[in-house]
Amino acid sequence: MQIKDIYTKLLDHFGFQKWWPVHKGTDRFLEVSIGAILTQNTNWKNVEKAIENLIRENVLSWDKLEKIDIEKLKKLIKPAGFYNQKAVYIKNFIKATKGQPKERITKDFILSIKGIGEETADSILLYGLDKPYFIVDAYTKRIFYRLGIIKTKNISYKKLQDIIQQNIPEDIDIYKEFHALLVELGKNYCRKKPLCKECPLNDICKKNLK
Predict the structure, then answer these.
(1) 17-30 burial, b if ≥16 CB within 10 A, otherwise e?
(2) What are the contacts of 87-93 at 24+ separation with CB within 8 A?
(3) Does residue 65 contact residue 59 with C-beta atoms inside 8 Å?
(4) pLDDT tens digits, residue range 91-141?
């Protein structure tokens, strides 16, 4: 089965996810970027609590995040965990990107900001700026290894990203949906301890469960 067929199969099972709808009145690029930083090493429910804190305090804007006292910022984003580090990363991001024309915000530019790795950078680029970078996360590696598409879970980020992008249409909406669908599969079925019998990909899985 081809990678694009896996996307179709997951879409049939889960339906469209339509990820990352931003809160009314917020800057999409900014909210997605802050969310991508906050979601490092935590789950989305915790990130939502942190973002809601920022919105409630009316500080989810470029100017206010630039000016906010870092100790207050730490307190507001505490639900997302690792708040001491993440507050610094947010400050770094705001300082580097505030006022930058969108066309100058490339992957290399974002990766040059301390605290931003490839997964976070691609989340910002794909969901925040509609640029064609497929996001590779732990779910993606686990699923593609178990399916037998890759031979090792230690494959590099770039190599797996290239494999996926070379085998699906270069379409922003497909990139977004496919990533979201893989996350749903990973959370609900292809867990560390998988629920294989119920999995929508059970009939094509090689079941590399090591």
Answers:
(1) bebbebeeebeebb
(2) 88/114, 88/115, 89/37, 89/113, 89/114, 89/115, 89/116, 90/34, 90/37, 90/65, 91/65, 91/66, 92/116, 93/33, 93/34, 93/37
(3) yes
(4) 999 999 999 998 999 999 999 999 999 999 999 999 999 999 999 999 999
d(CA 88, CA 70): 8
Q: Please give the C-alpha separations between residue 14 and each of 21, 44, 84, 136, 205, in angstroms, as whole numbers.
A: 18, 18, 36, 19, 18
Judge if pTM exceeds 0.85.
yes
- Residue 35 to residue 119: CA distance in whole angstroms: 12
Rounded Cα–Cα distance for residues 39 and 208 (Å): 28
All residues at 6 or more sequence positions from 177 whose CB lies less than 8 Å from its CB, including other chains: 7, 11, 16, 17, 19
- Asked if residue 86 has pLDDT above 80, the reply is yes
